[in-house]
Amino acid sequence: MNAGTTLKASPSGASDIAHIVLTFDNNKHASALYGQFDENLARLEKQLSVDIRSKGNQLSIHGEASAAEQARRALDYLYDLAQKGVDLSASEVDGAVRMAVAADDQLTLPTLEKKGKMAAAQITTRKRTIYARTPNQDAYMRALDRAELVFGVGPAGTGKTYLAVAHAAMLLERGLVERVILSRPAVEAGERLGFLPGDMKEKVDPYLRPLYDALYDMMPADKVERALAAGVIEIAPLAFMRGRTLAHSAIILDEAQNTTTMQMKMFLTRLGEGGRMIVTGDPTQIDLPHNAKSGLVEALHVLDEVPGIVTVRFEDKDVVRHPLVAEIVRAYDRHSVGRDHRGGDV
């Protein structure tokens, strides 16, 4: 891809106006970049307040200099994805815009290479490749690569659990761990298990379903089934972790806000040699009895300065589900301002 930029001085007090021309060397990939009826370009125009015109394999971007540069960066990144065969959905476009805008907000953003080229962190398994769609997702994915214990904290829809499972699946496929262990504290199910039919596995499986769903998304179904049968992948309630030392394993604790202090300490001390541990949760969604303190909230304070532990905090702007989900999160945040989430502010 080739690019040329022209800057024009604007009237006094206004920002400079830029005119950027991009030329793509592959018409097929350029067409995928534009989207059906140029819908991807229209989405970029709306979000960045720029004007984008297409003529064959050439794009012309016109707008305020900073916005035009953000559009160039996003288009460059999306074209790279198209070359890799990625389906450029609306979510991919939105993610590229977030990353491009963040590049201006953070002078030392780790996803910026020379010449302003964006390169988002990625997780690759045999079934699919996932790219970071927000700066915090990028930071989270890079933390998973380098740290043995990572906390991913924030609202629903930010991808913290999904990315954790994807990373664990990648580690297993590459032989970097021998087992994957996925766990949740079965708080909601606790009082009702006795009324459900079947053995313990059948009772708790519905509560652990989100972990299964993420796993099947990352690995072929037959491989998942074989790994489950062989115990290479284990999905179990938190109570099953007591008394174990989990070496050479990728261990994930989901919905960690629903652990007690003792449960959290018990889980964290299961980490054995060659192990990797990921803890995810949302401190605003605690289902514990009113007088119980959240083990996640306390752990974030207690372990704040412990070397080797990385905490990534997601925000409503990191929500990558339906746009309404982000608005719902913001609405509830506004409603709960000043309220105590049992354990103090996070």
TrEMBL record:
Origin superkingdom: Bacteria
Domain PhoH-like protein per the UniProt entry, residue ranges: 130-333
Main location: cytoplasm
InterPro entries according to UniProt: P-loop_NTPase, PhoH, PhoH2-like
Family under the similarity heading: Belongs to the PhoH family.
Keyword ATP-binding: yes
Pfam families referenced in this protein's UniProt entry, alphabetically: PhoH (PF02562)
Protein name as catalogued: PhoH-like protein
Record's subcellular location: Cytoplasm
GO cellular component: cytosol
Organism in which the protein naturally occurs: Nitratireductor arenosus
